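Chain A, query sequence.
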Amino acid sequence: MRKTYHICLSSHNEVMFRSEADLCRGFNALALAILETDSRLLAEGFLTTHFHQLVQTDCPDEVIRRTRYAHARFFNTKYKRRGSLGERRPFSLEVEGFHHTVAALNYVNRQGLHHGLSQTPFGYRHCSAGVFFQQDFGHRQPVALMPADQRYKYLPKGINIPTEYRMDTSGQLLREDVIDTAQVESFYATPRNYLYQMNKIGDEMSVKEQQQEESTTPIITMAVMEPGYSPEEIGRLLQNEKGRYDPQMITDLELCAVIDDACLPKYFKGVTLYELSRQQRIWLCNLLWKNLWPRRRKRTTEAQLKRCLWL
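Chain A, predicted structure.
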């Protein structure tokens, strides 16, 4: 019997996705894991250092194992890297009860907002927020699809996917074909309620609703859904809920693009970041910190440089 789980795989010291293409392939890996385990995907959100998923399955460990293996194989081949990606043990939490499930759905769908990557949940591309109630919101737009004879380039060898699974020209399977949108929309009931849930600030009412519900699941809060974050980091995520967005702060994807597409070809031709020595990566870190950012008018942090340079 399928149960509902929130699963999160994190990598605090190294980015797992260095480009938009990597994020697309990461979603494909999850989609195939869902298909192969006969599970149902309710919501997901991919960021450079971690990804969340809310799934209904009878084998949560197998879902994340297949997802991690498929993406690590792609990532390691592309960047000439070795080893597994992410923390040794993913975070997994069984979610029981209507209000607990809605709170978990809200959190996963609001990933871009929580992490300061967009001013609304719908502004971040790599999460499921935009796939629900598309017709009601006028979001349903024609999508340029990948020709059927080209899709194999973006999937593992020997993988057959259902004919109803479409792929866009970036090589990503369409979220609305993979996610059980009908079930999720039934949790929210109406488009108006979904908009309310996506835009409300704070979770005091959500906590009260969950407390009144018989459930073995802990009360779903930011701290529960982001294990390993310090109280200060949780505080920043809560501030981001108010729509705080700093366009002068460079994103991990932008920083990785500068490293991979500008610095490496100029200073270390023909190699990837993972082929550099630690001393070379430290040199590159100092170069970026001292010279590039004042000219580009973008801010970075020491922690961001370290994770994007694998230091």
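The mean pLDDT is 90. The chain has two domains: 3-240, 252-308.
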